[in-house]
């Protein structure tokens, strides 16, 4: 706990961490901790993990699909045996202290059993409720329920008269024993089908009966003399039967879009009276009679009407309140029982207490009746749970600003003004419009769309003074992607400063400009709506000072981010300090440690930030939270014990077992699973076939294990859903039954069959047979694959002894790992040796001295100065490197992981007399001057600072160095402190004071620092000589040229990475054109390098300040710990192998591999190290000599599947599948 | 390496039109490396031909082979026992390999499946450029390692000519002037004196002008 010297840890700390918040930050922390030997409790208040990232459509600057990259993380968290997910839960209290906390967790009632639920989604499908109801008065306990009587009735009729249908007709008969001869049924029947006379038992004429059920509804509750038969699904309950008949009618008729005449199927009245217990609807000659005063407005009648005859708003005297889907930002509706989003983990619905009929009136119960595994339980209550943990990571995330506060934009009034997060959902393929960009107002496809930046950011008027850091980029992304969806869209972004300060962000902006995204530097004062067209008029002043007005069809407000009120309350519960805006207060040199020892913060709650920085901070927080618990590592983990794997002898007969899943009715309602199973049994070598209701349910999985033993199965095929979510489950089932997990294949007959062919059940059944047959053919060819295990060396090699390297060394040593710290210079410290104060004003001197002292004092750290790493061999977990020492000798080092922290230095171009005249300084020179020679600094009456001097231009550095704007603000404030009379002019292109540093920018302006913007096309003219400096700049705010003759000219020159070309080649890791190392994944693996086991931190990755560097160093150690903390590592059984005989040494694999794994070895053949291979198969497909093979994906496998596909002629003339 | 490009499939289909039983022969040499004639291309081309012919209602039988090299007689011999069972051989080796096979198996028609390109290098995956024309009299030591024969469109020996504008050759905006490259290199190597050492003219008798060439290495024969 070297970074936390003030914390005294009790000797017996708990080897578990609680992570609060299940967004990308919490998930990353949880995974890193769980993979480095700690038990994790992941507490999430919403029903599923995923957070904001799951809501996004694409991510900048790579345009990767957000859901596609986050969902593997979701699955991994959901399946990790060391992570206990506590969703739909909140932290109620945190007691104890660092090392030994006790947290009290409130688990809200979910009403669905997480262990039993298979996530099939049937409950949500059948639930008829669509609105928030007004509940009828409930009887007192013991009292009987009163029948509601309508006083206010309204006739609902169509253009014509009702057209009774007999489609999927049910049979109604009178139970003679129960009939009380009252005649209600006779009176209710509109078709004269019920014969009755006083004191006689009623009888139904089946010829005349249309099956509307009016008689059934009318028969008094106490008699229940009318019975239903021949109704599908009635064995479950009436609600499911109504749904089934409604679906059947819809299927035969086709979806009716525009409302038509009533077909008098009677389902609405049945639903209202017999399922919801209201009785507000009655069938009459002209249509439906609605009791508008007693209607509870649940929407069930309308949702089962097969022809859209009913409109909820007409059935009631109240204004309906549709249940809106919060995940889709309320852009569409949901049911009370609802799976949070399609890819949710856990994929288990929650029943909403506010809107569920069952939970409020005791009626309905349809979802429980339909659930095939008995997962619905209406008796759930709130539970309290206490957990013992050693530390806490608080990563609750953020919410977006409510733009209604900025009334001038008309959000909430003008329908076509949306927020950026709403627009994300509109872009998303799984969103409310399936990815179609359409206006909420009228569904029209907008052509001209405007984005307005800084809504709720950089705005003192609404208490949001800070910059939200992400909006410039996400707006650009949304504009860019919108055009990808519909190239006729003309996007315009209205902005103040373009804050594209991150890695490769400027390049992204340029790309967007090339794709016709228009940028206008202007503040929008107000939006006016044309009430007839819904179009929106924007007024602004352009850069010529002219008033402009422009019409847009849609406006997106780039809303800022803020800490939610409930998050602030939670932070108070955890007793951690927050600033005025609710963001966590941390020390710049310990960026993740919250004010309460043992509690760490990560993600946007720790200041606005984008996804990669969040992920990096999450790994860093995981490291910071676990370093003090290192002694308790591996103490609370559960180990899986597997039986000895059965070894197959040559000639052993194949014994294949096939399981065809119903998936409730997801598959079985379309595909004839019994027929598929029967067919499976006829295939060669299939000795067992069955069709479980849910193959993945816990009891089914246990049954499969038993069946494998009972029938001596040695291959298993499951025909069910998607392998991406379920294959790991079944593979581990095979392992538990003692057979090789690669003796398995899955056919996806749900997503790829029943879901896409609901209207063609016969063909779908044939297709399911084929898919299953192909899987059987595939497993027949399967080879047992072994997963090699090897020992891990728990030493970390760190290259570079600056702040990043030294921080990493101290942290890694604290984790109990050995460290080699190799620095090429004679002294540790790197670039910070030349700096004075950090971005937040702290003195670097004591910090650096302390850090150096810690490094030198730590026995686990071996420092090698004036040394260079010259060679690295081996692979993740077991590297061997060669280091050249100052004596000229070389030294071999064994280590399990490598951390590149080679840093960067200040760029010093020969510009405007820098390096030549005393009066021309770089920002670093200036900083040194202020500290070392304050008198000269104070004597200085006028300073001009030039931003982007040699940055963001083709001749010098093409990128933005991220830190210079803040450095200029910091230094200008310092000079104003020493000499308030001094004139400071900062000439800039965009002031990129992101996050909370915007506050300093504001302070600087208040202190009288002049900020003059310039356009690169009209750059300032600067002439310098030994004694004079002349600056001429055009100031756009006054539209005049300004002449300045300052005493000092300070250039913000940016930073350049150190020369790492040889190192990069040696480590086989890529760098970008600017010489910064390229992360393995720009979003989700920000500190990993492309080669497994190699990580990076600090400015070697890209320009950043010291806090960001420290956070990244901790992150890199956190990531390395996931390797170093293991005694052994297991490799996947699926890896590429080169058969050397035919290798033409053509280098194709070497060039094609995205991970840089293949090499040409000394035997003159390509070689692929199985420990490094990711098993993607690209080399296999590319190899021109076809001499690379890959585990389960051999030509034999693919050919067997293809051959099997063609074996049976399709049944349907059109080709079936 | 010898480079090449696949012939358009229409052209190949026309060539094989008369046959219903052929061999498709690849080569594990240069054409594998430049991805036009390796085992994978043999399989892909054969499948394409089968599909096209089946679609046209005229099935074709294809035997797929990939030889170590088609330009060495020993590697061709294994085909001898069965080659006459087939009506033709479609070779996707370079022009040398195809011709050599045609010479060795005189009774079977040989069909070229690729267009042979040049002696070149891989700039990156999928991009090759020409470096050598095999003129038989190398001067690279005098020209900074840049060949005037190949890199100059006119193969002149005292360039640059008047068609060189700002380092670009007049024949194509994409082509750099070879002589500009040579002079720039010589300047940076401080070897401009080599410029004067070049012969005022080049004898082309060691090049193609003397007809098909032959190399006899007495020490090896």
Keyword list:
heterodimer; A: 1217 residues; FAD/NAD(P)-binding domain; Rossmann fold; 5-stranded parallel β-sheet; globular; disordered N terminus; disordered C terminus; B: 221 residues; alpha/beta; 3-stranded antiparallel β-sheet; 9 helices; 7 strands
Quick overview:
The complex is a heterodimer of chains A (1217) and B (221). Chain A has 1217 residues and is α/β, with parallel strands linked by helices.
- How many helices of chain B? The count is 9
CATH superfamily of the domain at 791-899 and 1063-1130 in chain A: FAD/NAD(P)-binding domain
Most extensive interface: A-B, 13 and 15 residues
What ranges of chain A have pLDDT less than 50 throughout 5 or more consecutive residues? 1-10, 1210-1217
Report the uncertain regions of chain B: none
Can you describe this structure?
The complex is a heterodimer of chains A (1217) and B (221). Chain A is globular. Helices cover 26% and strands 21% of the residues of chain A. The two termini of chain A are 62 Å apart. Among the domains of chain A are: 16-108 and 384-397 and 564-632, FAD/NAD(P)-binding domain; 401-561, FAD/NAD(P)-binding domain (3-Layer(bba) Sandwich), CATH 3.50.50; 656-780, Rossmann fold (3-Layer(aba) Sandwich); 791-899 and 1063-1130, FAD/NAD(P)-binding domain (3-Layer(bba) Sandwich), CATH 3.50.50; 906-1056, 3-Layer(bba) Sandwich (FAD/NAD(P)-binding domain), CATH 3.50.50.60; 1136-1190, 2-Layer Sandwich (Alpha-Beta Plaits). The model of chain A is unreliable at 1-10 and 1210-1217 (pLDDT under 50). Chain A has a five-stranded parallel beta sheet. Chain A has a five-stranded parallel beta sheet with strand order 20-27-21-22-23. Chain A has 1217 residues and is α/β, with parallel strands linked by helices. In chain A, strand 30, helix 17 and strand 31 (686-690) form a beta-alpha-beta unit. By secondary structure, chain B is α/β, with parallel strands linked by helices. Chain B folds into two domains: 2-118, Rossmann fold (3-Layer(aba) Sandwich), CATH 3.40.50; 136-208, no CATH class. Chain B is built from nine helices and seven strands; from the N terminus they run βαβααβααβαβββααα. Chain B has helices spanning 9-16, 30-33, 39-55, 73-76, 80-83, 95-104, 148-151, 178-188, 193-197; strands spanning 2-6, 21-27, 61-67, 88-91, 110-112, 114-124, 127-132. In chain B, the strands form two sheets. In chain B, strands 3-2-4-5 form a four-stranded parallel beta sheet, with helices on both faces. Chain B has a three-stranded antiparallel beta sheet with strand order 1-6-7.
